[in-house]
Write a structure and sequence with these properties.
heterotrimer, A mainly alpha, B mainly alpha, C mainly alpha, A: mainly alpha, 4 helices, C: two-stranded antiparallel ribbon, 5 helices
Chain lengths: 115, 763, 138
């Protein structure tokens, strides 16, 4: 399964990077979203996968059960998800504003206008 | 002492509100705080004069030996009283000075500066001192540029900030080296370890760096040029920062660290020589200024040079002279700056060379100017006379350089004498022109000059007011031993007395021939173009030019090129590491996947492909959502329900967001050529492949996080929670989460701002 | 774009989603859930209502403007941290106490719960600032 997830991670990275290289703002946003998922998956997979129980302590017990998933990368990813949402939202609004002002849908052309 | 500082910073917070009052009122109200502090610190005078030091300390960064600690001894107390005492007068004066303009922002920065300066002289830890040191530079930047619509003011502010800021960096580096050499950053500790520090290998670099900090702040040659430029500041600022307090911070630092760093040959040579040059150069340049404030600025350069010079000599007499001169100079220079401000304010001109008969127009101001001017000239029975005698004695008794030092001191003082004469005689009494009408300036204006001028006289006649308390205490701090201090006007006929008479005579002559001398020197001004001010201009131009060039090179503005370079670098470095790699990796068993997992993986990859290949935007968004939900399913399957729930929720909200804006975003048009798509495809495949290898390599090394174990075991006993992920988020690593939600808040704020701009434009 | 099905569903879904989000928030310390998830669910609920009845109507239902919620959340988080400082502990140290209530019996409360509530408010506020801001334009 590790190999499979490694391939999925790589695939998402490739797709994200390809979209980031496009000249159309909309594609760039899609690329950002893909890349965010890719990075979260990278952390998740690299921290070691177990088809394990969630990191919850059962009622009555004081210490966690054996064979439990690692809670630390989960905490990292959880905040990363919300942050990348914030980033994505800001980028979307920024680009929609830019488009409304400049009426240009091409980064290369925006650059020319700028000069 | 923390309480005193907090009071000043609270006052700074209140200043913008008080600024809504007529600024005259605001000045009076705000002056109550420094006034109260003056009495507060006067109350400590007895204890400190008895030889006690008062300390307070709060741990700040204990791991680095940085504490928020305060240290009040004779030296700090003298500076503290100067700051609060003169500060009181400045606030009152400034209120009137900004009579019409709203002065909330000005009072804010003036209060911040007062607090910073107090913190600087009270600090008991080098890092604490550095923080306040920088804060004085920053607040002085805003104060010099009070009139921020004027380009010259902005330029002068920047110049002062850059010069003193660079010095501040040197000072920080020097402090850290000193801390390593002395084994502590606490000034109290360092003061007892002078021997060890001076014999340490880091002594010389630490000394030079700290001197660089002190010399830039106290406007020593060749860094002196920022001080005359800073005269763009409103006059209350010049009077407070550029004569009484901030420029003396460097002198304070030298005095403070003199028991630790002083006494060596390196110290004596560097400090005394630089001080000596500054003393003479400042005095000479002052005489040939025609602007009252620039004249005062150069004579301040002279005074600062004198103090540094005396501290460099470092004998008992010289240190006593330096301390006395700090007080002498603050009294007369503060008064004269305030006088210059009134003259400027009420006549609109600050020219000193053309005769004006202002005595009739402003008799109280003129009288104060006379008092302060006589002290500046060093005539008995003024305090300045005592100061000058002591300077001569210090120079005469210096254990080196023979007659050179007294000669320099006499030269500087006779120029100073002539400057004082010029400053007082011409504007107030000179000429035969029309007599301006009689007029009494408002009390806010004459209060400061009169009090400071009268003090110069009073302390001269009754030196017992300060000598056994303030002066003796401060001298003891600098010398680290107690010496008797008895100041008097009359010491009998000795060499210093004779030199005084010589100064007087030569000074009168110099004043008489000043204008002809100026004409002779006209040619010499061409050399000024080669001075340090020009070096500053030049290095600033080079710096800006380099910045522009490198920005044009690196920040070309083509987004996809940035991304391209970024990922090619990552891929290149990554592949290099792999092929250089230490041992390969074993491919784990590919077949170790359940059907459900493989299905999800396939779903994700297919959706990802669809989202990049689809010609329709809506399809791309839907496919992108598919990727997100697929990833969430992976989280579900591998024991991360919290993450999965968050991912589902975020994915839903993201799709909603896209639906809301999709019609506002440009539709797809095929833009890039086939070749560039091929090229990008190769880069994308390369990066993706690399990441796959990376994951496998990481998995191969195996990683046991010690943190995870700790968190898991402590979650219930310490965190009272059964959901370990949540306990990490809200308890163990709550500070990270706080940073994270702050970012989220800023994103929300940013979006709000962007949308608001549009509304304003439309509406 | 008014749709009868959507508006009927939204009318019943909003209270349920809000209830669910509060449930997620409260049980988050012991079971999957917490401020982040809860906040997002609540925000999704409000925007669903916005789709059905218009964003300005959704905004009217909010107790305060979205950015005010963000500010309140940040203050709450800060407050939960400062609370520990007043006791002399480092910033953000969790402080717990047990209340005995007649109904549910023993009930442990502590500053981490306040912290999570702050996170909840920030997430709702920031998300709705974006969604309502964009939606209101139409």
């Amino acid at each position: 399964m590790n190999v499979l997830l490694a391939i999925v991670t790589g695939g998402l990275f490739g797709a994200g990077v390809f979209m980031l290289l496009r000249r159309n703002p909309f594609r760039l946003i899609v690329g950002l979203a893909l890349l965010a998922n890719a990075i979260n998956l990278l952390i998740f997979t690299a921290a070691g996968l177990t088809r394990a129980r969630p990191p919850l302590i059962p009622t009555g017990a004081e210490i966690p059960p054996e064979n439990m998933a690692d809670p630390l990368p989960q905490a990292l990813i959880l905040t990363a998800i919300v942050i990348s949402f914030g980033l994505l939202a800001f980028t979307i609004v920024l680009f929609s504003r830019t488009f409304e002002t400049l009426k240009v849908n091409d980064f290369a052309e925006m650059k020319e206008r700028d000069e | 002492m923390l309480f005193a500082l907090s009071a000043v910073f609270l006052m700074a917070m209140a200043a913008p509100w008080l600024g809504r009052l007529p600024s005259r009122m605001a000045g009076w109200v705000l002056s109550l705080v420094p006034l109260a502090l003056t009495f507060f610190f006067l109350g400590k005078l007895g204890a400190v004069a008895d030889g006690r030091t008062l300390t307070e300390s709060w741990p700040w960064v204990p791991g680095l030996g940085v504490d928020l600690s305060f240290y009040l001894d004779g030296l700090s107390l003298m500076f503290t009283l100067l700051i609060t005492g003169v500060g009181t007068l400045i606030f009152i004066y400034a209120g009137r000075y900004f009579h019409e303009a709203p002065a909330g922002r000005f009072f804010l920065w003036l209060s911040v500066f007062t607090g910073a300066m107090l913190g600087l002289v009270l600090a008991g830890n080098l890092i604490t001192l550095f923080v306040f040191w920088e804060l004085t530079s920053i607040s002085s930047y805003f104060l010099i540029a009070t009139d921020h619509k004027k380009e010259s003011a902005r330029k002068a502010a920047l110049q002062a900030l850059l010069v003193t800021g660079l010095g501040g960096q040197a000072f920080l580096a020097g402090s850290l080296l000193l801390g390593m050499a002395g084994g502590s950053l606490e000034i109290a500790d360092l003061l007892t370890r002078g021997e060890a520090v001076r014999s340490h290998g880091l002594y010389l670099p630490a000394l030079l760096l700290i001197l660089a900090g002190a010399f830039t702040k106290s406007a020593q040659v060749p860094f002196h040029f920022w001080l005359p430029s800073a005269m763009e500041a409103p006059t209350p600022v010049s009077a407070f920062l550029h004569s009484v307090t901030m420029v003396k911070a460097g002198v304070y630092l030298l005095a403070r660290l003199s028991p630790v760093l002083g006494g060596t040959e390196a110290w004596t040579v560097t400090v005394a020589a630089i001080g000596c040059v500054t003393m003479v150069a400042g005095a000479v340049m002052a005489l040939f200024q025609s602007d009252m404030k620039r004249l005062l600025a150069y004579s301040t350069v002279n005074a600062l040079g004198t103090m540094v010079f005396l501290l460099g000599i470092g004998t008992e007499t010289a240190v006593k002279a330096a301390i006395v001169y700090v007080l002498v100079h603050s009294l007369y220079k503060g008064a004269l700056f305030l006088v210059a401000g009134v003259v400027d304010h009420e006549t609109g001109s600050r020219n000193v060379t053309s005769p004006r008969r202002l005595f009739r127009k402003m008799p109280i101001i003129a009288s104060s100017a006379v008092l302060a001017g006589l002290s500046m000239a060093g005539l008995p029975p003024f305090f300045g006379y005592i100061g000058k005698e002591l300077i001569y004695e210090g120079a005469l008794k210096a254990p080196f350089a023979g007659f050179l030092l007294p000669t320099a001191a006499v030269t500087a003082n006779l120029f100073l004498f002539a400057t004082a004469a010029l400053l007082v005689l011409r504007p107030f009494f000179g000429g035969t022109g029309e007599t301006p009408p009689f007029h009494i300036s408002p009390p806010e204006f004459f209060l400061g000059p009169a009090i400071l001028g009268l003090s110069s006289l009073a302390v001269g006649i009754f030196p017992g007011l300060v000598d056994s308390t303030l002066i003796a205490g401060a001298t003891k701090s600098v010398l680290a031993r107690e010496i008797p201090v008895h100041l008097a006007l009359w010491h009998g006929i000795n060499t210093a007395f004779l030199l005084g008479i010589l100064t007087f005579g030569a000074g009168v002559l110099l004043y008489a021939f000043r204008d002809s001398l100026e004409r002779c020197l006209q040619g010499a001004t061409r050399f000024a173009a080669l001075g340090p001010a020009r070096w500053y201009e030049w290095s600033l131009a080079v710096l800006n030019g380099t910045a522009v060039r490198q920005t044009r090179l690196l920040q070309h503005g083509r987004l996809n090129l940035y991304v391209l370079i970024l990922f090619m670098t990552i891929a290149g470095l990554g592949l290099y590491t792999f092929f250089r790699g230490e041992g390969g990796w074993v491919l784990p068993n590919l077949l170790d996947a359940r059907i459900s997992e493989a299905t999800v993986a396939g779903l994700i990859l297919a959706s990802a492909f669809l989202s990049i290949a689809s010609p329709s935007r809506l399809a791309a968004v839907v496919a992108m959502g598919g990727v997100g939900y697929g990833v969430a399913l992976i989280y579900v399957q591998f024991g991360a329900p919290d993450v999965a729930m968050t991912q589902f929720a975020v994915e839903t909200v993201t799709v909603i967001l896209f639906v809301l804006v999709i019609h506002r975003l440009p539709s797809y048009v095929r833009l890039s050529s086939r070749t560039s798509r091929m090229r990008d495809g190769i880069i994308a495949l390369g990066t993706g492949g690399l990441m796959t290898l990376l994951v496998l390599a990481v998995l191969e090394t195996g990683n046991e996080s010690r943190l995870s174990g700790f968190f898991a075991e402590q979650a219930y006993p310490e965190g009272h929670g059964r959901n370990i992920v949540n306990v990490i988020l809200v308890d163990f690593r709550a500070l990270d989460t706080m940073g994270e939600i702050t970012v989220l808040s800023l994103a929300g704020l940013g979006v709000y701002g962007l949308l608001k701009i549009r509304k304003r434009k439309e509406g | 774009m008014k749709s009868l099905i959507l508006s009927t569903a939204a009318k019943y879904l909003l209270p349920m989603l809000l209830l669910f989000s509060a449930y997620l928030l409260l049980r988050g310390h012991d079971m999957p859930g917490g401020g982040f998830t809860g906040g997002l669910v609540a925000a999704a609920g409000f925007s669903l209502h916005g789709f059905a009845f218009g964003m300005s109507d959704a905004k009217r239902l909010l107790p305060a403007r979205p950015l005010r919620l963000v500010g309140a959340g940040l203050l709450l988080v800060l407050g939960s941290g400062v609370f520990a400082m007043m006791k002399g502990d480092p910033f953000l140290t969790g402080t717990w106490t047990t209340l005995t209530l007649p109904g549910p019996g023993e009930w442990k409360i502590g500053t981490p719960l306040l912290f999570d509530l702050g996170v909840f408010l920030v997430v709702i506020g920031a998300t709705l600032a974006v969604l309502l801001g964009l939606g209101r334009e139409d």
